[in-house]
Protein: Probable allantoicase
Amino acid sequence: MIDRPAEQFAFETYPDLANRALAGSVIWASDESFAERENLIMPHEPAFDPNEFGNKGKVYDGWETRRRRHDDIGGHDSAIVRLGVPGLVRGIVVDTAWFKGNYPTHIAVWGLTCDEYLPAEQIAALPDSEWTQLVPVTPAQGHTRHPFEIAADSAQGTQRFTHIKLDMIPDGGIARLRIHGVPAPDPRFLGGTVDLAATENGAHVTSCSNMFYSSPNQILGLGRAMNMGGGWENARRRTEGNDQVTVKLAAEGVIRHVEIDTSYFVFNSPGDVQLTGITEAGEEIELVGKTRALPDTRHRFLVDSEEPVVSVRADVYPDGGISRLRVWGDLSENGMAEIEKRWGSATEK
Structure:
């Protein structure tokens, strides 16, 4: 249902760095009494059904908070988005689509640069001095796309941001937040020639402690998971120990960096994660030490090891789901020979 023109802005030629499809995540919101914060970065255009009601009232395809009534609630509502791809912001769109009688009177947008995997509450508690104002407090209208261009040569336009905070003043609803800009990848993660844990390259799961809800093979699949069902989810562990999955790599290689993605696992992500490499001789090599995991987050870790491995074991503590496991590295001489042999034997038949 659409009743407004699809106006386009020049900066929208840049990718949306907050897009859910790029692993963006709304990690925190001051309130989401009526509609979930996650809707802010959904890739599709906001939808509206005038007849759809739920237990909390009218259903909106956006983020909607309760009405602020008392002094102890005072202030305004905010939401924080971790960009799927950090970058240089060129333009912002705050869309209040379908919020016609319950939109905020004003909005503001801030940017933050933080490469650490800090808990959402810790980021939310950072003082304003840690944030860079991208959009000052600005009047808002209902059912409207509000565009804000960020000049490339401005102080804001030359800073790389990892997080965006949207202020909704004082309360109400916002359908979408788009952060268009130039990706600024960490050059340390551009090494490593191949994902040795990808199914398409020959990797496969050899053991798994629990696969109650879904197959662990999904974590080795193409692209990104589209929802929680596209990853590996185990049952709630009621006994000692932890869950784990072991992957035979495409071939022997030296690991450069890895990715453990908990996207879509919000309340059932692991408490901690660990990744261990296993050599041809069976020796175990620590690739990623036991590390606190965040929900709905694409974690990336640099690996400091020159020891070739043939398998990796991902441990989740005590349980919890992951959507993808990526193991980027360089094939060893033995690994390349194995790949060539496999290819040759297939083409000779």
Q: What stands out?
A: The chain has a mean pLDDT of 91. The chain is about 5% helix and 40% strand. The two ends are 56 Å apart (CA to CA).
